């Protein structure tokens, strides 16, 4: 039919920063050369600046899930008890990993769509003083909810447990003061706010987590934080690095630092606020009643309409990828992302497309009504006066 | 300060077709090899299919202006009379080129913003039976106007003159039946509907034009159609070809053929109709009162506002490139392009951005009002019923 440009509007992989893509074209270099070494060294330095920590940030060649598993195998020993705090599909993944290594699991569970209350984690820690760790997400991608990381960290800090945070979606979409709040293990992923393709994950450990790591006896080989730290200090990657992704990351980190991590977060938060205002203007129900994530907005499909139909229409009409609910919310919600390299015109386009899709499915819509609500958020932030 | 993605919304260079960009990465090949030869052969064949002609289409390594000059030097002799039909900056360029070669020029002029009447060209031909050529644009990019090519061709056909058409913007945005209408010289450019970067131009000649070419005695060397035709028949480019652009063109031509040239034109025409509806919904005055081009819509800046301010705001707020008026219309109009690799979501984004820009400049605007008018055009074309 007509021209349809591919658009990535999913909460990962996210749109790519073009200079990062271009940098990947320089991948025909060997990684044991001074040229690559210089890029790698700068990446290691810039990762620390972007994470906002003085600790090492270890880049691993893996998907996010591999880094989650690595955090478990590098921080715990057979039979250790961990508290898994979960309110969504990625929380459940922590439980699956802990189960795969036969750890003793205490679940702190909340329904999909709710944030985890810090008190519930505190109670679990109180009931299980033997707990060696608390595993959670900073933002639960499957539901579009942010968890109260700071408050939970305050509950974990006085205990022997370490707080292990999957911040793959959280980094760059919410404030995470790693050292100030005492976040012990922080995991990031290349395909989110880092604006590059999937394939790299990042892990940073606190002193408390490094101590735990030195005692951890779960079996591991490829993912070995102590060896990775030595490698980072020598500037020589332990295994063959993903050359193209490191080159891309070098460009993206430079951009993120130019923008400022605070501005990157503010960008996502403003887009999220505009998205929520749009959805409400269109009469749609937000799935996260409180503590919505700035990474992704989850929206209930209108009554009688499977959310999969909306996702399919985005694909068929506009070659755009938005995402369905995950786990138990599949078919009930759709999710619009606004993290990383995403801007207002893209949001306007997405909302205008959604309005057409709703109309095509027989839902009454005022064309432009959702867009106008998003424009009002931009105008207010940009100091544009409206009549 | 927030993230701003670069957006090309100019009537050339236009947005690039990604697989064409990716193909450019294969440029480290020599052009006198079987591998490149195969690509080049297919490009020559596909160009004919996309132009819709059985005649050769010659790819030249040049900007469009070079191809315009080449058409003059390859078709005329010292002292020849040419009728230059002009109603804009690119029409004036024909006059400049003809003047540089000291041809005798008869101007058929209309004000910026108007189409050229076929009768005026017919009268000039009648008054100057010695005229060897008529030089014109298919679509005048500077004003966003389409000229009545078919009617003018009908006036030129019975005379000795050849009709030389700069269709750089016209190709892919309007129907041009080269052989059916008798268009003698047709010029295209890579950076328009061909969706690739600037650097290539394309020329196709009718039998009548080839006859003229065989008699033409203006001085020339690099641009020599007869040598280029021989080169095309041998499959060996006469000079070093722009390897990266030929590789890109190969991908783009494949895409255009999959889409269909008719659909490519229809895509631009529908986007143009939606743009015009939007501008009118916003209370803005269209510059082309009749025969608007589907390539680019020119719009008068609101009273008291220099159009340069709108262009600057697009750049500053959204990193987007739209264009000012050219020649005598600079500062008075702005131009929104919708040719080539351009789709509806991009248009929605552009219009929402324009609404914000007008509001920022104190022009009363109903947010979403322009977007809604464009959505209505999409809905109608896509058979979406609205309440």
What does this structure look like?
The structure is a homodimer of 387-residue chains. By secondary structure, chain A is of the alpha/beta class. Chain A has two domains: 7-13 and 261-382, Aspartate Aminotransferase, domain 1 (Alpha-Beta Complex); 18-259, 3-Layer(aba) Sandwich (Aspartate Aminotransferase, domain 2). The first copy, chain A, is built from 14 helices and 14 strands. A seven-stranded mixed sheet of chain A has the order 2-10-9-8-5-3-4, sandwiched between helices. Chain A has a three-stranded antiparallel sheet with strand order 11-14-13. A two-stranded parallel sheet of chain A has the order 1-12. In chain A, helix 4 (89-100) links the parallel strand 3 (81-86) and strand 4. In chain A, helix 3 packs across helix 4 (89-100) and helix 12 crosses helix 13. The two termini of chain A are 40 Å apart.
Question: Which key features would you list for this structure?
Answer:
Aspartate Aminotransferase, domain 2; homodimer; 7-stranded mixed β-sheet; 3-stranded antiparallel β-sheet; 387 residues; 15% strand; alpha/beta; 2 domains; globular; Aspartate Aminotransferase, domain 1
